[in-house]
Amino acid sequence: MVQPPKAPALKPSALRGDYSCAASDYTVAQDWERYGPDEHAIWATLYRRQIDLIERYAAPEVLAGVRALGASPAQIPRFEEANRVLLNATDWRIVAVPGLIPEQVFFDHLAHRRFPVTVWIRRREELDYLVEPDVFHDFFGHVPLLTNPIFARFMQAYGEAGPKALSTPGGLAMLSRLYWYMVEFGLIRTATGLRVYGAGILSSKGETVYSIDSPEPQRIAFELVRVMRTEYRIDDFQRTYFVLDSFEQLFEACYNTDFAPMYLQYGSLPPLGADAG
Ligand code: HBI
Ligand code: FE
Q1: Which CATH superfamily is domain 32-266 in?
Q2: Which conformational region is residue 57 in: left (phi greater than 0), alpha (psi within -120 to 50 degrees), or beta?
């Protein structure tokens, strides 16, 4: 039996998932038949309200992915069905996990083109906010862009960068900021305006609108070192979003880049503030 990792909370609390049946790589069976009507109904509520919003706010590559996956409000998706689409598009697959898993295991899954998706769904009282990822965040937020070859290739390179980050002081914090800002909370410039692609935004009704329409946050052009040095907030909307010109830009900045010199140069310096101008 594997041990759950520590919760990424300010006040550490137990993670919700059941880790007792997880394999050594933290995977479990999705066990789709076990979801009840109430759980499918929560999926339906979340899906309906996000799909309308993202038609207007999300990057075209995200919308193409949502369509390709054939997800619907009718029920929590079956990972096996999504995997047929993903394998065909980019040779990625979903693996089911009980929730957050240790960094090292997470990186290894990504490096092998496996995306860990949490099996459980939030409760109705938590529609708007939840500390841990659930199946709606992981599937609706992350999986659509994994049908995009460039973004999928970036995600693999990200996983491959894990071991060196774990063995260099300050490295993990810097690599995690890249994930936070460019995978969870990324924005992208398109011919028709600024659009959302980050999973943390796509799975949040409030932040989808806020990240694009609010005058409050800073929106800064993507710059690898700056992203890796900038602290983030886990308990509120972001103060800063980084903006891509294209997914190629993210891929080019990270593929074949040795992050070690950046860890050595900046890893032991204090980070830049989450709202540093
Ligand atoms: N585990 N299931 C899951 N999902 C994540 O997004 C995740 C994780 N473990 C570690 C982790 N993310 C972070 O360390 C990333 O910043 C790398
Ligand atoms: Fe996420």
Answers
A1: Aromatic amino acid hydroxylase (1.10.800.10)
A2: alpha
